Amino acid sequence: MMLRKPFVVLTLIVPLIWPLQVLAGWGGQLGGWLTNLPVVDAIGEKIIENRIAFVGGGAASSAVVKGQIRADLGSRANIRNVPGTNGSSTVIEQLNPGDSFVILGQEKGIPWYSIQLSSGRRGFVHQNLVVVNR
User: Fold this and answer.
1) What CATH architecture does domain 65-133 belong to?
2) SS in 3 state form for the chain?
3) Predicted model pTM
4) Could you tell me the pLDDT band of residue 42, with boundaries at 50, 70 and 90?
5) Residue 64's pLDDT is what?
6) Over 50: is that where the pLDDT of 99 sits?
7) Residue limits of CATH 2.30.30.40 in the chain
């Protein structure tokens, strides 16, 4: 299993700093110090608006990820203003099967993609309606 750099850094650093907790204000100082780690800056540089960073075993790559409404759908796909189908969610547009868009991202644990249409309008579409083109 490959570990991510921030996890490795914290695993190695926190046990070394733990004895320093007796000093007044150590928590704020530790948080400030961890925030300024170069590892955090390197990861932050990979996240660019309208792009998703894919970090694998090698170097990280950033590429525009395009999506398309599945061609086998029998009807149009609803694009919503917020993820979900609850009371606060409204349909802002509908796309035909085969229509393309840019995938801006997806929050962990939520089955909705944040997308940008060719018109520039942004919305959300359920992942089961999408074919991702990488």
Assistant:
1) Roll (2.30)
2) CCCCHHHHHHHHHHHHHHHHHHCCCHHHHHHHHHHCCHHHHHHHCCCCCCCEEECCCCCCEEECEEEEECCCCCCCEEEECCCCCCCCCCEEEEECCCCEEEEEECCCCCCEEEEECCCCCEEEEEHHHEEEEC
3) 0.55
4) very low
5) 87
6) yes
7) 65-133
